[in-house]
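FW: tagging you since you asked about this chain on Friday. Here's the raw sequence from the shared folder, copied in full. Didn't touch anything.
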Amino acid sequence: MTKTFIGFNHGQYGDLFIGLTTASVLKSIMPECKLIYSINHKFADCKEAFLYSKDIDDIIIWDQYDNWPGPKDLQLLQDLKAKYPELYLFHPNARHKQNDWYLYRHQTAENCEMHNLPAPSEKQMHFCLEKPDGIEYGDYISICPFTSFGQRKNLTPNILRAIKTFADTHGLAIIQLGSKQESAIEGFYKFEGTYFQSIVKMLGSLFLVSADTGMIWAASAYNHPTIGFYSYGFYPGAITAKNWTPKNTNQTSFESDYISNIDISSLPNALTNIYKLASSYRS
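HL: got it, structure written out here
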């Protein structure tokens, strides 16, 4: 009888993409199993992206988040147990086994550790998705300047000015991606849409510039050209952000203990190089 699994952590957005590595590990162990992917209703507006994964067979949308399982979740589980006699659950709120995990393993490997699965291979850490339909390519840069951590991780005014200067010099528009609550940056075009629609918009850009956001993990799933900015000063003992940086081979990363301390003197060159790379993909 085919085993069916429900997994893995059901949010936030970045966690859902990180879970693609965990899905790959599970399917490499049990190729014939069925995987129902966990997504919380708070993050369900990106669920369409995961329909393009070869490792995901179905999707479940949980109702409760911190207080999982709620009554609706229990009913969903009961219905699934009736449908799949050999049903196994990876807890959607699995916790880190050690607080300083980031000193020892990459976040994709940590997700496997949290769910008691073997460590992934380097190839599995570099998760991938097929591109969705409906991408309209344009001469623009997509940018995610804001994070849920506020000024500690948000892109600084100096970084934003450098991006704007580069865009103006090359005749490029800048499309700002993010939640409806985030203020629009002067000179940028604020995109309004679901998270999945934002992913499609990002994929139509020449490249993405992003703080440490879920979108930078989404971009990695497609190896989309990206420039990322990271800070590690509030992670005790950390001297780099590499263990929570996606394995996107087309990503250039800047990091320091705090965002405000990042040396951006080489940013114009990085922008030029990523622009050339992105343009070569279009030609």
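FW: The chain has a mean pLDDT of 96.
HL: agreed, and Residues 13 and 153 are 17 Å apart (CA to CA).
FW: great, closing this out.
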